Amino acid sequence: MVNKSKILVTGAHGQLGKELKQLASLYPQFDFIFLSREDMPIHHFELVRNFFKITKPQYCINCAAYTTVDRAETEKELAFQVNSEAPGVLAAICKEYLTKFIHISTDYVFDGTATTPYKEDSPTNPQCIYGASKLEGEKQALQFDPGSVIIRTSWVYSEFGNNFVKTILKLMSERKELNVVNDQVGSPTYAADLAEAVMQIISSEQWSPGIYNYCNDGYISWYDFAVTIKEFTGSNCKVNPIPTSQYPSLAKRPMYSVLDTTRIKQTFGISVRNWKKSLKICLTQLNENKK
Questions:
Q1: Tell me: the pLDDT tens digits for 57-69?
Q2: Which residues, listed in sequence order, are joined to residue 106 by a DSSP beta bridge?
Q3: Domains of the chain
Q4: CA atoms within 13 A on the CB side of 75
Q5: DSSP 8-state class, residue 259
Q6: Rounded to whole angstroms, how far apart are CA atoms 10 and 87?
Q7: 234, CA 20 to 30 Å: which among 24, 121, 129, 160?
Q8: Can you tell me the distance from the alpha carbon of 192 to that of 26, in angstroms, rounded to the nearest whole number?
Q9: Does the reported pTM lie above 0.85?
Q10: CA nearest 42: which of 104, 128, 132?
């Protein structure tokens, strides 16, 4: 009997974790272990080490994160525990057990003042606690396991959890009019596409450590995103563009967070869908789920 490689996925209840679970059946050559925060508190070194000792996974995909951007401003300790300390713990134990580590990061590590897409080696300068905690998590991962693969992504949405697409759909069904910010620009990422990219990296057996950007092709404002959702669903809700100044929030958001995905495409041969194609797939999936 052939021993299958094991893939340990943390953050199993999040958007990416659930998309990986959807994909698992397409990769019968692997055994997947999906863990939620309740199953294994990933900042607890000895608990994680014992789990690795028992399961001996070949790969670990860390999808666990503290993602409530505004609340992070008042829950700094918790944000850093989940987003910084935990990746460091996982990376150290992955190195100890020769487990290949993939960690998911964010566009919020940048300050949003650029005018051309951010490359992996562009200067980082997070403007909020969430971004600072995620950047520290990258540093911890690479410090404790220089063989780690870090994937920065942006504007993640899916049929699961809370995200912009689902929020806009709900608001459009309840209101006649919506105000959406039009001066923050970025690239949406369909979590199902990101999950496929992660699995392509693992399946390629061409492990190349370092930082990579991944998002769907094309860039838009949040207003453009909402207008496209309106068009694709045939909603009658009116969408009004407003500046960020009219939508105050605790945490400062990057005004420009477009990511250059050249490196991940060239290194792993990953093809990236246009954001509109992926949005259409997600909306179709959401519609199917209603039936």
A1: 999 999 999 999 9
A2: 153
A3: 5-163+189-215+258-274 (3.40.50.720)
A4: 12
A5: B
A6: 11
A7: 160
A8: 13
A9: yes
A10: 104
Q: Which secondary structure element, helix H or strand E, spans residue 73, and what is its range?
A: none
Between CA 288 and CA 291 the distance in angstroms is 5
Q: Checking phi first, is residue 47 left (phi over 0); if not, alpha (psi -120 to 50) or beta?
A: alpha
Rounded to 5°, the CA angle 215-19-204 comes to 65
Q: Which two tokens stand for residue 195?
A: 């999950």
Instruction: Return d(Cα 149, Cα 172) in angstroms, integer.
Output: 38
Q: Classify the phi-psi angles of 168: left when phi > 0, otherwise alpha if psi is within -120 to 50, otherwise beta.
A: alpha
Cβ atoms 36, 42 nearer than 8 A: no
Residues tagged active-site? 130
pLDDT in tens, 2-27: 689 999 999 999 999 999 999 999 99
Closest listed residue to residue 24, CA positions, set 158, 189, 195, 153: 195
Phi, psi for residue 147 in degrees, rounded to 5: -85, 5
Query: Distance (Å, rounded) from C-alpha 243 to C-alpha 182?
Result: 6
User: What is the Cα–Cα distance from 82 to 41, expressed in whole angstroms?
Assistant: 9
- The H-or-E segment that residue 132 falls in is helix 129-144
* Cβ 102 vs Cβ 148: under 8 Å: yes
Q: How many helices (H) and strands (E) does the chain have?
A: 10, 13
> By C-alpha distance, which of 223, 118, 125 is closest to 168?
223
Contact 187, 9 (CB under 8 A): no
**31-40, 53-62, 112-121, 167-176: which range is least confident on average?**
31-40
- Amino acid found at 209: P
